[in-house]
Design brief:
With 635 residues, this protein is α+β, with helices and mostly antiparallel strands. The chain is built from 18 helices and 19 strands.
Amino acid sequence: MKKEKDIVKETLQDFENRILQRKPFESQWLLNMNFYMGNQFCDIGYGGAVRELDKQYFWQEREVFNHIAPIIDIRMAKLSKLKPKMHVVPATDDAQDVYTAKVGKKILQATSNKVNLIAKCNQATKWSEICGTSFFKVTWNSNLGQVVAIEDDGRKIKTGDIEVSVCSPFEIYPDSATHETLEDCQSLIHARAYTSEQVKQMFGVEVEGKDVNVFSLDGISSSLGGLGYSGLATRVIETIKHDSVIVLEKYVKPNADYPNGRLIIIAGDKLVYEGDMPYINGVDGKREFPFVRQICSEEVGNFWGVSMISRLIPVQRAFNAVKNRKHEYINRLTMGVLAVEDGSVDMDNLEEEGLAPGKILVYRQGANPPKFLGGESVPTDFEKEEQELLDEFSKLGGTSEIGTMEAMSQSIFGVALELLIDENESRLIFTTDSMKSAIKTVAKHILRLYKQFATFPRLLKVVGENGDFEVLYFQSSDISSDDVQFDTDNENNNTLSQRREMIFSLLDKGLLQDENGKITASMKNKILQNIGFGVGIFRHVFVIIEMVGGEIGFGVWDSSVDLSELQTKNADMENVRMAEGKDVPVKEIDQHALHITQHTAYMLKNIYSKENVNGKVEQKFLEHIKAHKAALKEE
């Protein structure tokens, strides 16, 4: 077995090799970030460093006309409309599997709210849009959750919980950049800088802090601006972070030598962990990397995604050049260029003051007075090239001005404009597919980690679709499927006019009425959910129906409830109380057939599935079910 020093040396050497391998991509990311923030007179110099480009002449116009930032902001605004709404597909059509699938959906809903998954998605999308790639890290943090015990030294033992974080591409080092997917990699290194105090809190080891190179933002008075003024640009620079330690986490996939994979954690030059990969987060109980990759656009044969900024940089440089040359031309027309005979005037005075209005110009007797050279108007080539570059921005960036006309699509332009809007939105399809795939994989990781670590009942707080508050008890046995499907709620396809048209169409076709021609709240809810609409569109149905009926407001919505759903929730809570040994009486308002089904499913899943059946708990359930059956016969 290798000694600790050999493991540390080998890992650090592997890390250095990966740094060199990733350097060209890192330089491009830095260039993208600089262009996004407006520092656009720079390029990649010798050694891969981003260098500033100086003015060639003092009078040279060097203003930045940043079109990259608004294009990325528009793309971000469109992509942020993709909401992470997920549901779990049952493993079979068995009633218990259907029930556990509903539990899995509620687990995902509660966990998404708890870890603020929407904000995490927006953060990851920002990184992928600027640098081309971003990563989610889904782990189990034993310091989270409820306190279950307190040790003699006062240390609290907690249940642990899911932790989802976003990693920039600067932190991830794959074994090869030629792998096209994360699954193709055999090993992965996650590197992040922490202070020495943080390392002590995390791993309980003393590590000497050093100066670590990190990237930060810096406002500089650069060579931007023009004749007589200077500009300010924010750039990304390499700075020093003091008293810091680089923590390396090297993940190795399961292989013949390490059937459960391998995880090596090094803080500075000390080995703090070496063992199996801790998470059973892959398909069929396999151990995989706790990372999920999201990209902007794919490049063949490359692990790293491509950002739109990389494609827009040449156009942005050309646009800045055209605008600045145009302004220089205008400067010459407005300020003029003087022709002066040698020795005829005081040159120092003329250079400082120019030909100001009312100025008395003294020139040598017999000499020719200074005069302006004739100028022409601004060539039309400037305007033509400027417009062509603006069009190229829209083509390469996947955005267009048609997006601002969507509100008029139904009322004015009809089907023709709708087709143009669909074509405009289809430019983002690859990015949205990557986002959906990443979120779906994150959801699968969440369910698999709960399946692994939630060994005893846990409490989750869930806000239901009707706005009601629900407390959910679950444990690992309640998770039988990790087949997650992702539903999108894209506001681009859900405008007010489109919602009205769809709702009136449903009403005309009679889809919202029962056999008696009446519209029940339960039937409306089921129909709208089955055709893929959530609560937001459901509320609009009630608003319009009430307006048709002469009432305006949410009265029907507020008073309408799905009794079957409430009965199911009540039966589930009774299962928890009876499992704790408490007596639960049968109530007159119970829907007895539904309660019998829920109680029987719970017994088969949680009582009879164990080798040693708890006789007292079994008897309580049997007596309770018997009482329900008796009440059902009386009905």
